[in-house]
């Protein structure tokens, strides 16, 4: 089982879009995938076709120790992966966990119980470096950083890299940066091209070859509660995430 934290403290960079579409794409290639929604906004939950306001149990109940992952996980209706859903309840976890012993390792411990059931676990992090994100970084084998190729993107990246270093020192010594993913990419935009070139210069083969283009289908699909792969398989967005899944599986096979 490979646990990937999809994270960037910057909002709206495509974390959730990546989680949902990558989960569906990996599943298409036969991987057993669990998507863990760690954001109280619950966008990954809704985008996977699960009605978030109706949920009795969510990832919140797993983090505070009342439920196991198996208790709470749901199968998506329209595609072939599992979701550990979230909703506003999760906003309370931050405060409730503060005085708990092992507060940073709650997710890691919970995931250990399902390690034989999944090939990939994707953790959809909130746009913050809070305790829930630290739980994700502590549980993860590696981090995937979606980012838009904009002027301030590199600046934000150094904060994240510093956080990853701290987590390595204190909580998870083997945490790796799996890769940087260029999202909402517009190749006609000169600045995007320049930032992209800088990224490759600085991070080398940590930057995925696959580029995710700006594509309206990716933005539309969540309102129908489905990944772009189901909504419009031939769209450039859906095809890009299939390509990314392939790249990740190939990297994984090269490692093993
Ligand atoms: P947050 O930090 O709020 O959790 P996020 O990083 O998870 O945001 P998303 O919710 O995935 O980002 O994307 C932000 C917005 O951009 C959404 O409306 C989404 O539909 C849209 N979007 C994401 N990726 C693409 C893309 N490649 N092309 C077009 N629209 C996109
Ligand atoms: Mg999100």
Describe the structure.
The protein has 256 residues and is an alpha/beta fold. It has one domain: 3-Layer(aba) Sandwich (Rossmann fold). Helices cover 43% and strands 14% of the residues. It contains twelve helices and seven strands. It has helices at residues 15-28, 43-47, 59-63, 69-72, 93-97, 106-112, 131-139, 153-170, 190-203, 216-220, 228-231, 236-255; strands at residues 2-6, 33-37, 74-75, 82-84, 120-124, 142-148, 176-183. The chain has a seven-stranded mixed β-sheet with strand order 3-4-2-5-1-6-7, sandwiched between helices. β6 (142-148), α8 (153-170) and β7 form a beta-alpha-beta unit. α1 crosses α12 (236-255) and α6 packs parallel to α7. The relative contact order is 0.19. The model has no long low-confidence stretch (mean pLDDT 96). Adenosine-5'-triphosphate (ATP) binds next to α1 and α10.
Task: Please describe the structure with a list of short key phrases separated by commas or semicolons.
256 residues; alpha/beta; 12 helices; Rossmann fold; single chain; binds magnesium ion; binds adenosine-5'-triphosphate; 7 strands
């Amino acid at each position: 089982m490979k646990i990937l934290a999809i994270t960037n403290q910057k909002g709206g960079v495509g974390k959730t879009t990546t989680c949902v579409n990558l989960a569906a794409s990996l599943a298409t290639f036969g991987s057993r995938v669990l998507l863990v929604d760690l954001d109280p906004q619950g966008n990954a939950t809704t985008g996977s076709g699960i009605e978030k306001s109706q949920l009795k149990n969510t990832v919140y109940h797993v983090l505070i120790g009342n439920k196991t992952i198996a208790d709470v996980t749901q199968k998506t209706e329209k595609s072939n992966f599992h979701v550990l859903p979230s909703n506003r309840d999760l906003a309370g976890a931050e405060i409730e966990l503060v005085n708990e012993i092992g507060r940073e390792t709650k997710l890691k411990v919970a995931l250990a119980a399902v390690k034989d059931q999944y090939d990939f676990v994707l953790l959809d992090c909130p746009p913050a470096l809070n305790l829930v994100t630290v739980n994700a970084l502590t549980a993860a084998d590696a981090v995937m950083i979606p980012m838009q190729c904009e002027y301030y993107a590199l600046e934000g990246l150094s904060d994240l890299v510093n956080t990853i270093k701290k987590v390595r020192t204190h909580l998870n010594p083997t945490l790796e940066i799996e890769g940087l993913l260029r999202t909402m990419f517009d190749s006609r935009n000169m600045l995007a091209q320049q930032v992209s070139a800088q990224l490759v210069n600085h991070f080398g083969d940590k930057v995925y070859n696959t580029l995710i283009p700006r594509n309206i289908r990716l933005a539309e699909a969540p309102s129908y509660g489905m990944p772009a792969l189901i909504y419009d398989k031939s769209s450039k967005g859906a095809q890009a995430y299939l390509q990314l899944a392939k790249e990740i599986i190939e990297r994984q096979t090269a490692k093993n």
